[in-house]
Amino acid sequence: MIASDLDGTLLRNDGTLSPRTLRALRTAESAGAEIVLVTARPPRFVDRLADAAGFGGTAVCSNGAMVYDIGTRTVVSSRALPLTTARRVATALAAAVPGIGFALETGNHILYEPAYRLRLSEDTGAELPVPSLADLWLADVPVTKLLAWSDRLDADALLAAAEAGAVDGVQLTHSGGRGLLEISASGVTKAGTLSVLCAGRGIDAVEVVAFGDMPNDLSVLEWAGAGYAMGNAHPSVLAAIATHTLSNEEDGVADVIERLFGAAR
Questions:
Q1: Is Hydrolase there in the keyword field (predicted)?
Q2: Domain 83-185 falls in which CATH fold?
Q3: pTM score above 0.85
């Protein structure tokens, strides 16, 4: 199995998949390897990529909160974050980081309150505003992630503030977004979900080659038999993972696959 993150890893900085990388993935598939996308992104983003590049198969979405069948566009399994937990965590974070804003990711939409002012072009059409923070906790939807955003702190500083603010009972991480902290149900990680998926397929960790660039990828890179940190990876990832490849702009994933499978560039 080849398990790859998307942003900053498989995709170039403009969000596209290079022809070289697509050829390398097709070569690996032809040789019998399964390609699994392992991303912080929700299914709606994976759908757009699948339409553009012809992807099928399986994706682990929302940092492990969802397993998604790309071909049939169905959620195979999910681990929701209880709204009561999200509210408790948001209360603690608001005390630790004044001015912080919150949103709820459902996989199909983002519900956000007025203080959450982060806007992403790829989420156009999926964003649903609510009048106040209190209204956010009235949402009658399954929540895959609580998103916390600050216009004053970067993602590393926000994560440190959350950890120092006695926020517990959840999984805290980030994927490099501008001042964005991602919060999932306790125990939800990319590696945890991928390991269950592999067990169901009879695939051992040693048979998995993984690629990633951000702190939310560390669990997978450490679990896989061969974990590769991208050349453009976060400093903590480069320090923790001994094996590196080229950057996403240099087709680092393709470079490894070509060597593993004897593919032409």
A1: yes
A2: 3.30.1240
A3: yes
